[in-house]
Amino acid sequence: MLSFIFIEILTRIIIFIPTNLKVFKYGFDKNIIIETIDLSKLQINITDRKTYKLKKGIIRDSKNGKISAWAFGGSTTYGNNCGESSSWVNELQKKNLSLNLENFAFNGADSDQLVAILNININKKKIPEIILWASKFNMTNIITKSNYRNQKILNYKFNDAKKHKKFLYIKRLDKTLKSYLVSYKLMDAIIIRLFPPKIKYTKKILSDIDVQMMVKNFQINTNEAIEISKSRGVKEFYIISLFSFADVNKKNKLDLKTNLYNSYLADVKNKHANYVKIIDLRDNLSRENKDIFLCDSLHQTIEGNIYQADLINNYLLNNSITLK
């Protein structure tokens, strides 16, 4: 028993070094959550999910008089997935020399991971003036997660998690240990990194309630990203909808996910008027130009990255208060 307690205390001390004192409240304060993004880079986020309050003493992340902007997204924002095709972030930097852009996107990133990365960096680095949030894709990633970020809030498990009822007791024990023991949670993250689960899903398993909860999870994360940004003094928050081939196919018949996403964009724009702005590029792809701008259903060619960067830059120049 003493050895067990020693390991737990030692683990919390080790985690404290790249994070903060909240690690010692984990398990005692239910508002505290721990998220492991990348252990090799020590990307561990510890968040207190209480109401965010505006912090004073903002130090801007500005260099040489340029306006700092941080970009978040998945592979379509990270770029270079159609050979050496650059990214829209790189191309935007070339077009607008008044910006100093930093790209936090990575392949496969979803809103669960991106809001954690925002939290990590906004607490360690100087504050940007603009956030570019391009996290529309990869919503479905949480379908294969046994413990996605907002599972407790939504009180919902996806169909994949329901298939293995014989492991119910083990999962309950696993969930309890993760809720109280930092050492167990860290070991679980290490095991998943070394032996990632090979779980596949198809669109057929997504019921309407699955889709609703999947989009709701995205909404909660994006709302939290907005609140974090506003509380730390970020001046402008842009939600960017990059285009994909699905936008061409579904112009006449929108699916449930798209309808829910569109509804959220309208709601968040009204709720955060003059702070959150929507850059929607989905109507800028046609059957005629899709083969020029995309190399597959999602990823942009160099022409596609330049084209979307140009559209984003024009919107910023016409709508950004900071850039004027």
Describe the protein in words.
With 324 residues, this protein is of the alpha/beta class. Helices cover 44% and strands 13% of the residues. It has 13 helices and 7 strands. The protein has helices at 2-16, 75-78, 88-95, 111-124, 151-154, 159-162, 168-180, 182-194, 208-231, 245-249, 256-271, 290-293, 302-319, and strands spanning 32-38, 43-48, 67-73, 99-103, 130-134, 236-241, 276-280. The strands form 2 sheets. A 5-stranded parallel sheet has the order 4-3-5-6-7, with helices on both faces. It has a two-stranded antiparallel sheet with strand order 1-2. Helix 1 packs across helix 8 and helix 4 (111-124) packs parallel to helix 9 (208-231). The termini are far apart.
